[in-house]
From TrEMBL:
PANTHER family: CYTOCHROME P450, P450, PUTATIVE (EUROFUNG)-RELATED. Heme binds at residue 313. PROSITE patterns: CYTOCHROME_P450. This is Cytochrome P450. Keywords: Heme, Iron, Metal-binding, Monooxygenase, Oxidoreductase. Belongs to the cytochrome P450 family. The keyword ATP-binding does not apply. It comes from the Eukaryota. It comes from Cylindrodendrum hubeiense. Its cofactor is heme. The keyword Manganese does not apply. One of its GO terms (molecular function) is iron ion binding. SUPFAM superfamilies: Cytochrome P450.
Length: 359
């Protein structure tokens, strides 16, 4: 969270580019896949957060170096390999590498790895040369860890490269899935869409939301927006697989059942999020109003959309900026979702129209 707030001016550059593209589509009446644009936005934001620069997905309106295509092709293969018994994996990988396009995708994956190495090497050169113009982004914070306590934590340049690669490999899919789900379910629900746009418009008129760029902390003060974000991530968690953990020494009891030490256990976020004992009898429905119930604090404890721990969706302030400038209309086609490591949406097709009072 601290990195997002600190980098807000740089993220605003990504939002400006996104809004410019949305205005172009609104003027032409072109139907666009919002899930695709959410991922391009997420990738460029990751570039700003880690490297203080956008990759160019939105600027060029294209898949930079084929990263998205490569991830879409490789994630199902890598996920299947991870859940297969160890002795079957070599045979499986040996077969799939012969599939059309897989070899090329592996090359693009190597490009992502090289990009991570290149960014780390370049930043290391700047640090060693004493360049005082270095931006305070996540990469520089990782370098601080290496310098201040790397030896104690066994955290060196290899670990920095792994962190950067992980952000490039996984960061865009999870963020785009969350952002797409929030927008999709809001636009699909006339009641939620009306209540949210009314809250955004009123907040803009009263000066609660900055113009032209809504600030993250401003967005977080809009109660119905926050409820819509929570509900969108609840109904469609970004991570689709169980996140495995090993039972500790001595074993333990989980939900009334005993598990021996070393047993691999996990929980699927979608199962938790649809638990009627936690979220109510309407747990299968998109209903932002549930977050104003008396048990909302308890429900928050069971949110597992990005897995456990402190996480946030970096697009929350993009949503009010988008919805106060444009009316979004879904096409008749339902979106599609693909359940591998990530719970990835696609074909979230919308038409945008400029609002008469847009800012």
């Amino acid at each position: 969270m601290s990195h997002i707030v600190r980098a807000e001016e740089r993220i605003d550059l990504c939002t400006d580019m996104f809004m410019t593209r949305m205005k172009e589509f609104a003027n032409t009446g072109e139907i666009i896949d919002m899930s695709k644009w959410a991922q391009m936005y997420a990738f460029d934001v990751i570039g700003q957060l880690f490297f203080s620069r956008m990759f160019g997905f939105m600027k060029d309106k294209s898949d930079y170096r084929g990263y998205i295509r490569s991830l879409d092709l490789l994630v199902p293969i890598l996920t299947t390999s991870c859940v297969l018994p160890t002795y079957i994996r070599p045979l499986f990988l040996g077969i799939v590498v012969l599939m059309p396009g897989v070899y090329k995708a592996l090359g693009s994956l190597k490009d992502i790895e090289k990009a991570a190495e290149s960014c780390v090497s370049e930043r290391q050169r700047l640090v060693e040369s004493g360049d005082v113009t270095e931006n305070k982004d996540i990469l520089s914070s990782l370098f601080d860890i290496v310098r201040e306590k790397g030896e104690k934590l066994d955290f060196g340049m290899t670990e920095v490269q792994v962190e950067v690669f992980g952000a490039l490999f996984a960061g865009s899919d999870t963020t785009a899935a969350a952002l797409s789900s929030i927008l999709y379910h809001v636009v699909k629900s006339p009641t939620a869409y009306r209540k949210l746009t009314e809250e955004i418009d009123q907040a803009t008129k009263s000066g609660q939301l900055s113009v032209p760029n809504v600030q993250y902390q401003e967005a977080m003060k809009l109660p119905y927006l926050v409820a819509c974000c929570k509900e969108g991530m609840r109904i469609h968690p970004s991570v689709a697989l169980t996140l495995p953990r090993h039972v500790p020494q001595g074993g333990c009891t989980i939900s009334g059942d005993w598990f021996a030490e070393g047993t691999r256990v996990g929980v699927n976020a979608a199962v938790v999020h649809r638990d009627k004992g936690i979220f109510g009898e309407d747990a299968d429905s998109f209903n932002p109003d549930r977050w104003f119930r008396d048990d909302a604090v308890n429900m928050d404890r069971y949110m597992f959309h990005f897995g456990g721990g402190s996480r946030t969706c970096i697009g929350k302030n993009l949503i009010p900026q988008l919805l106060r400038s444009f009316d979004l209309e879904l096409t008749d086609q339902e979106w599609e979702t693909h359940n591998f490591w990530f719970h990835k949406p696609s074909n979230f097709n919308v038409r945008l129209r400029p609002k008469a009072t847009s800012v």
